[in-house]
Amino acid sequence: MERKGFFDTPIEFLKGVGPSKADVLKKELNIHTYGDLLKHYPFRYIDRTRFYNISDITPDLQYIQLKGTIVEKQLIGEQRRKRLVATLQDDRGSYIELVWFQGIKFIEKHIAIGKEYIVFGKPNFFNSKANLPHPDLELVSEAKREFQTALQPVYSSTEKLKLFFLDSKGIMRLIYNLLEQGANFIEEVLPVTLLDQYKLISRREALIQIHFPKESKQLQRAQARLKFEELFFVQLR
97: which strand partners? Predict the structure, then answer.
């Protein structure tokens, strides 16, 4: 359906994958090619428009997004109880602990004291004090602006994939790389007359917006277009 060849490319050739990650993607999600990854759609979206102050965090909040500076990091405990704790300070002077129990060596190596980060996760409370276990972390200076979206996609993953840093955020980065490289290879499969009659967006735009919607209206149009396409070909068969 897309330009012959490009989306049939084995997944190991995509930037950020390689043989090891390709093997686990094939076994865990049945993703063998670029095309398989493109059709690994998000199962929900998270609103990323709001930044919270640390002092405003309450137990009823499902997810929060913070911006602040890492002022301290330390390894605590031994063996199975070992954890990495980093302290984030926001611009109001409030503090919160970021905690990791897995992937500690990798994360500790990539967290820099004195750098400003965007942090996202589900808050946990212990002794009436908030912390963020295993948050998403991104340097403010490296935050990507292409395909910027207020609605962050959430992708299905597995525990094995997470060991290869292919959690939802990791898969999102792969899809970002794929669209950056191959968005122009996505070809239209419906007649222009149908697009005009039903006011449908192009297939290229739908696949970009289903992964990185800039707003809810664009997401709805992308979903409508892809559902129409699926039903159209079911009826043809």
Answer: 87, 131
What are the pLDDT digits (tens) for 181-220? 999 999 999 999 999 999 999 999 999 999 999 889 999 9
Structure tokens at 209: 């917006």
The model's pTM: 0.71
CA–CA distance, 132 with 187 (Å, rounded to integer): 42
DSSP 10: B
* Burial class of residue 172 in the structure, from the number of CB atoms within 10 Å of its CB (0-12 exposed, 13-18 middle, 19+ buried): buried
Contact 92, 105 (CB under 8 A): no
- Cα separation of 201 and 208, whole Å? 11
CA 12 – CA 22 distance, rounded (Å)? 5
For residue 132, give every residue at least 6 positions away whose Cβ sits within 8 Å of its Cβ, in sequence order, or none.
64, 66, 96, 97, 98, 99, 119, 121, 122, 123, 124
Instruction: Give Cα 151 distance to the centre of its chain.
Output: 10
